[in-house]
Each structure stands twice: as structure tokens, then as C-alpha cells.
Amino acid sequence: MQTKFNLGKKFLGMLSIGIITSASVFATVTGTDVMQKAYDVKKPNFTHSAVEMDLISSNGDVQKRLVEEWSREKNDLASTVMIFRSPSSVKDTRFLQIENESGPNSKWIYLPALRTVRRVSSAEGDKSFMGTDATYDDMETRKVDVDNHELLGSESFNGYDCYKVKSTAKDLSSSQYAYRISWVDKNSYVPVKIEMYDKQNALEKVLTVDKLQQVQGYWIPLIDTMKNVQSGHSTKIGILKLELDKAVSDGMFTSAFLKTGRI
User: Fold this and answer.
1) What is the pTM of this model?
2) Which of 32, 37, 126, 133 has its CB surrounded by the most CB atoms within 10 Å?
3) Do 166 and 181 form a contact (C-beta atoms < 8 A)?
4) pLDDT of 22-57, one tens digit each?
5) Is 106 left (phi over 0), alpha (psi -120 to 50) or beta?
6) Are the beta carbons of 94 and 82 closer than 8 angstroms?
7) Angle, alpha carbons 44-189-75 (nearest 5°)
8) What's the first-to-final CA gap in the chain, in angstroms?
9) DSSP structure class, residue 67
């Protein structure tokens, strides 16, 4: 289960000077600049967390899941392992994602009922991950240079002063969405809202950060929600426990660990 900005101000009483200043500063900031800063936000070298996942149906029924997650940043590339702890229907399902320098991330899943590790193919990128509203591709952090980024301006969202950026894939056949619009907090450079539009240019999903907090010098989304506005289903994720920068064995980020659950 796997993501940062300040424009010139118009000063009352000095309108003409303010307009010139604002236009000058605005011209120096591009959508690509904003998304690159979002991509480059400082991340912990290691993360260990307990996560509560709520799958919420359109009629409000909630299915709760508990997931344990470990992440590692190595050579500017991220690896993540997830183990589903409950309920019994998904207990001991294990998932591994490894970011590659180029191309899509490598992904594997262990299904306890089959007692086998299966590699997730890139063709499955638009499939739901474990019944959530996130697809396998949604769990990746898109590299900045695969999209064209247009700065739409500044806009407030949920109390955050944000840059608003439209990102369109350079190769549309490689993206499950026509485009995305991101609201990126100018202070932390964390996207606090992302709208995802389908190939018919209709709004499909909205990801919102419900609680963003600085922990040990890192900006961490502690609660977020992804809602499929077309189906009415949503997934809410909250971090219950969090441990940062405590080293995790490299052995965890292997398909061998997926199969046994042991290093």
C-alpha cells in the first residue's frame, strides 16, 4: 500500500507593485517544478507501521482490515512489504513492491490459500489491490518525467494553501487515467488532494489527506481516503502506530520472505 509549494502575494495598498511582483514570481514556478519538489520530499530511510484499513461500501457498510507495513528507501528507490493481519479472509496475505530506476515497479503477492508467491504483471496495473479503491498502479509514485505538468494556479483546500497542477501522461496508453489534478501544500510539498479522471475525462476517484503531521522531521499523511465517485465505494487508511528510521533487514524485501513470512 504506496507520494509538496509558495507564489507571490498581492499587497493591498500597493496594488500595481503587488501585481507586478505576483506575476513575476508566478512566472518562475512551473507545474514540473512543483511536482518535482513533491517527488523529492524528504522520506525516512525506514518505516514500520500498523495500519487500519476501512473498506466502505456505497451504503456505508464498513469492512475493517489490519495491515502491518515496512518500507525502505535505498539509493533513492523505495521498497515496501505489507502483511494483512486480519480479518481471517485475508490473514497472512503478503505483498512486496520494489521501485525500479526505470519502468514500472516490480510487485509480488503471496496468497495463503494457494501457498504460492505470484508476480503481479504490468497488465494488472489497473486492477483493484485487495478489494480497495486503489489499483496496483495507484500504489506507485509516478516519476515526474512521465507526465506533462501544467500549473493551474493556487487554491486553498481544507485549510492548506496549495499549488494546483494538472498532470497528463506523455504516453496515454501507459496510464489508466486521462489526467490527474493535484493540490500540493506549499508548506510541506505534500499533495493533500488528487483527482483522477478516466479515459472519458470523467472524474473517477479522489484521494484526500485527512491528517498530515510532521513526525521526526518528516511530513507523514496519517489518515487518508480514496473515494471512487463513480461507484460510491471508498477506502480509508489510518496509521495506528509508526516507527521511523529503525533499520529493517534487506531480507524482508524478497520473494522468499513473502513465501515464509520469516527472514
Assistant:
1) 0.87
2) 133
3) yes
4) 444 445 899 999 999 999 999 999 999 999 999 999
5) beta
6) yes
7) 35
8) 21
9) E
Name the grid cell of 93: 496475505
Q: Provide the grid cell at 20.
A: 507586478
Q: Calculate the average pLDDT of the chain.
A: 90
* Residue 185 cell numbers, joined: 501544500
Q: How far apart are CA 210 and CA 186, in angstroms?
A: 17
CB atoms within 10 A of CB 146: 12
Cell numbers standing for residue 175 = 496510464
Mean pLDDT of 219-229: 98
> d(Cα 142, Cα 146) in Å, to the nearest integer?
7
Alpha-carbon torsion (80, 85, 87, 88), positive or negative: positive
Handedness of CA 42, 240, 213, 223 (dihedral sign): positive
Secondary structure letter of residue 200 according to DSSP = T
Task: Report the C-alpha gap between 206 and 54 in whole angstroms.
Answer: 16
Whether residue 244 contacts residue 44, with contact meaning beta carbons closer than 8 Å, is answered with yes
Q: Which residues are CB-neighbours of 50 under 8 A, at least 6 positions away? A: 66, 67, 68, 69, 239, 240, 241
Please give the grid coordinates belonging to residue 208: 484526500
